[in-house]
Design brief:
Two copies of one chain form a homodimer. The first copy, chain A, is built from twelve helices and eleven strands. In chain A, 45% of the residues lie in helices and 16% in strands.
């Protein structure tokens, strides 16, 4: 496959962290990367033959209006990278910048897969002790239709098969009870669409408690509920980790020192560093949006995952399943 | 205030656990209780002058159809207890039985406060290190209107002031961004109703991550989102606790034995035993629904909390704020 393209600009910690992550990914996976950024940022790869650099004269900032940014800043690194994806010089593109602007750029510069109504933000939630749970939509569409959720289910299943190596991922519809009649009107109508979809293994409604469990691989929901759940779980993980450390550290009796080395692997597993980036499924190319706060380890994961998704032909499979010939 | 009425039937572990919890509550808070149940269950209070027993010849089971149960089983303990509340012989009523049937019984036998469109299930989420966060609706109404959410906000604020002793609880509207324009149509329209409501301290939109924090006291949302979030957090707490114990216990080096006494208070704080029951706010009387799996400690908490809410005149205050004279 063609190289992964990476936006060096827009991360909270500046280009150096992203450069470090890219180098780390190349060290382990081999291959090559196209890096897009300012002249100074590109210079950080000087002498590294594995990296093709493309200098962009502009940068989309967190303060830029997301919707108009891709049109106002045509030579921004994010826009240049999206164009590399559009022209298929890159097999995927990852940005760690303004996520609203990234969504707008994906739609304006790359466009949707023909037949897909709306792209969905697709994230992996790490579940200690078992494989991650893939959740979509995590925030792109606050209001959806049953037909859109149907497409999210198909796209999420394709993604999960590729990323987690599960041949027939279990797809669940997020609701407030397991029976088909439980939930709101949207869920009740979507249930029957998913039950009749031959390309997925639909396991019926799932509840909130099933997300962090091994009962389901792909959880489908609207972008409002998905975003609220995602952030609720992030908040709970943060609070919980701090509360455990606080409880173990109270009394200053050395218990925390004994416990910490045993807890660190769990803490690492619970952070999203191994996932690296959210995929904007439904876009006509592998467009990934990483968290602005990503560290080098998260950047490296994102690059490796992007190549894995490209090799597994996720976009091509979605294109075929949505009955389209591409745009 | 009049005594708290308690349904002895319907709990997963049988009447003895509920009886034990009631006695424990009476030991610490004094006062009296009306207990409703089978002859055998009532006999467990023999000789206890603090408890008035009312024998009911029927019992609503988990297998009973919720909607029709209160009409089909007119002498069920749940129905008899609700009638005690309706007739104001009891200041509140708590059941640990079939929660769907409990909602139906509350509506059929006690009715709504005049002017309240829909009752909302109101729960307290324990937040380690700070006061609980009150969440409503946790599942009674899967589809709502801005006007209903407005009423939920007012009722939740009254409840939280009484239960947590916060004079002006911070009320937040659950959304996917803090700015007023963020969210779905429902949230955007509700925002302006809450901003203009003089009886609450509205702090604007809150996100999922704010639920398990000290940034907000009352979180208002529809029953679909609320139920999904509640169960997601319950599932995460369960998984995290097990993962931490598993990590500390690995290697069998004694670290878990040292850590456990320090973690137990945290584990206890995170379980809902201190909350005891969800309140069905909007019903014309204090109707509380406890979890079927409640242990004696949870039952005792529910009884104490019920009296606290009755003494604080929660229902009377909601009645006044909703501009009603009662039914």
């Amino acid at each position: 496959v063609n190289p992964v393209a990476v936006d060096l600009m827009g991360g909270d910690s500046g280009p150096a962290v992203i450069v470090e992550g890219v180098k780390s990914a190349l060290d382990t996976m081999g291959g090559s990367v196209i890096a897009v950024g300012s002249h100074a940022a590109c210079e950080l790869f000087a002498g590294d033959a594995r990296v093709e650099t493309v200098v962009a004269s502009e940068e989309i900032l967190m303060s830029d209006d997301p919707a108009s940014a891709p049109r106002r800043k045509r030579d921004a690194s994010m826009v240049v990278g999206a164009t590399l994806l559009k022209e298929q010089r890159a097999s995927s593109f990852i940005t760690f910048g303004n996520s609203g602007a990234a969504m707008a750029t994906a739609l304006v510069k790359v466009g949707r897969i023909r037949g897909v109504a709306r792209p969905a933000i697709t994230i992996e939630l790490p579940v200690p002790g078992t494989t991650s749970t893939v959740l979509l939509d995590a925030g792109a569409n606050t209001e959806v239709t049953p037909a859109w959720l149907h497409q999210f289910a198909v796209m999420g299943s394709v993604y999960t098969a590729a990323r987690l190596g599960i041949e027939h991922p279990r797809v669940g519809l997020l609701s407030i009870g397991e029976e088909p009649g439980k939930g709101n009107t949207l869920v009740k109508e979507t249930y029957y669409l998913l039950a009749e979809e031959p390309s997925i293994k639909f396991v019926g409604n799932v509840e909130g408690r099933d997300i962090m469990s091994d009962r389901v691989d792909v959880v489908v929901t609207d972008g409002f509920t998905g975003n609220v759940v995602l952030k609720s779980l992030e908040g709970a993980a943060h609070l919980f980790a701090n509360a455990v450390l606080g409880a173990l550290g109270a009394g200053d009796d050395g218990v925390l020192d004994l416990a910490l080395p045993k807890l660190l692997p769990l803490w690492n597993q619970m952070t999203p560093d191994d996932t690296g980036a959210a995929a904007l499924l439904g876009v006509n190319g592998l467009f990934l949006i990483g968290h602005g706060a990503s560290n080098a380890r998260a950047v490296a994961s994102a690059v490796r995952n992007a190549r894995q998704l490209a090799e597994a032909k996720v976009v091509e499979t979605i294109r075929r399943l949505e009955g389209s010939t591409g745009e």
